[in-house]
Amino acid sequence: MTQEKKTGATPRQYDPAFQEEAVRMWEKSGRAAEETARELGISVFKLYDWKRRLRGDRAARGPRAAAGPALPEDKESLKGEVTRLRMEVARLTEQREILKKAAGILSEPPQRGMPGSKP
User: Are 23 and 51 in contact (CB under 8 A)?
Assistant: First the structure.
């Protein structure tokens, strides 16, 4: 008779309190599951599995990305939000254009007579 050796590490067991806290932390943080799992030192698949078991199948089928804050109900708040977002888009567009120009300038070959250029 030969004895069989078990190879590989045994799966780590996590108590239900840790599982519940990990899922709660992930849901409350608004961050991606991958980021939360990495922070806790667990597999992202474990986190999804724990959420499915703890919250039910319906909750696990929801979007993976964190949902943004709830939209305000009144029209004035929505108008203010639209105005703020338009200003942010304009600012980001301007920054992108500046960066594109800078990349073009930096990628040009140096002019003759500049230090470090070959004649």
Answer: yes
What's the whole-model pTM score? 0.40
- In the chain, domain spans: 16-60, 72-110
Least-confidence region, from 9-13, 18-22, 38-42 = 9-13
* Residue 9 to residue 22: CA distance in whole angstroms: 23
Task: Transcribe 32-86 into DSSP letters.
Answer: -HHHHHHHHTS-HHHHHHHHHHHH-HHHHTS-SSPP-PPPPSSHHHHHHHHHHHH
How confident is the model over 94-117, as a mean pLDDT? 82
Give pLDDT, residue 105: 85
Q: What is the Cα–Cα distance from 24 to 47, expressed in whole angstroms?
A: 10
pLDDT band per the 50, 70, 90 thresholds, residue 60: very low
Interatomic CA distance for residues 97 and 56, integer angstroms: 47
Q: 118: which 2 tokens?
A: 């070959």
